[in-house]
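anyone seen this seq b4? input:
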Amino acid sequence: MKILLINPPNCGRSIPEERYGIESIRQIFRGEPLALEVLAGNLGGHEVRILDLKAQPGAMQQTLDAFRPDLAAFTAVTCEANTVLRLARELKESCGARVVVGGIHASCDPGFFNQGAVDYVVVGLGKGSLAELAAALEAGRPAGAIPGVAATRPKGRLEFTPRAFGAADLAEHAAPRYDLVAGNRDSYVLSSVSARLGMVASAFGCPYGCSFCCISSLTRGRYLTHSIETVLRDIRLLGDIPVIRLVDANTFGNTGHARRLAEAIIASGIRRHFIADVRSDTVVRHPALMRLWKEAGLRSVVVGFEEIADAGLAFLNKENSVALNDQAIAILHEIGITIVGDFIVSPDYDEASFDALERYVTSRAIELPILTVLTPLPGTPLHAEMQGRITNRDLDYYTLTNAVLATRLGEKRFYQQYARLITTFHANARL
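predicted toks r here
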């Protein structure tokens, strides 16, 4: 079977640009489509291609004409969902392939894709599900009973058997098909360090339940780790690429696994710079682990600080405190690991709130602050809680840089302050 895996183009819309001409908020990062590379690796026996429309935005029709897929599978985050439906309709009209949609938005809000242009929705970690679906379709067997796969019913309710995710869904025997995007490799660059960037997964899911986050939906709350051998294999497959982004939601969610992985990297002689995600409370409780990872090549960590007040952290169900955040910052600076700090700007911010955030970030010397706007993504607890406050339901604007709730400040002033902080922080950023 011919299978085309499609990464949608950069397509989110921007209120501050469209209404106020503020362009400094734009934050576009183009990394390789690792989700599709790992799916492709587990589709042995099929002819598989990856179309990365972020790297080749005008290549869809040409690819369809040349390849004529039997099955086309899209991935999509929330702000790409409308675009994926449009592309699915175009694809159906062009070549008649059966269409599958998976990824974060499909996992959080599968019913959104219960429309005529889509044949199947894959909910959650999809390596096993998509391979089983492809095998069933090729053999002419019914596919609707596969756990984690829903056959669409545009005039009815989407129904499927939830998948009990486990080690088999990691499909560790099958390496990611990095070769399928080799032609785009030079465009996958981390601009802040002017270096080529490769991506590797060491774990899936997250053991925490932050109300704003959609990650846990991928594995229904489970935290699954790849074997040490699998992670080393995938790092080696990326050749001489100098920077490896471990794309796990929380690389250190299992500290024993993280320690063994660092030790194995050191013992293997692999010399790379690593970027990984870690919770601040993990840093505080396991500083020796962070020192070990520094020896293994850990250059930077992404830390979800989110809020600068304990009440805000509690509202987000972060299970953390400002005191722990401050301790983690001190430990990481002492070790020499740079910090990419994620902060959530609430639409309830007033002038004093923006000033307080600026003082906090500046006084802690956080090397690269990243500011997103509080966005209740469909399917998250936050969305259920804030449903009545949502003023913008067009998913094109769910980029995490638009306020989809009413702002306390006038809208223009809110975006001016937001843009001011981004400009200030990025002018002094270092990674």
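The radius of gyration is 21 Å. The domain at 188-427 is CATH 3.20.20.70 (TIM Barrel). kinda curious what u guys think
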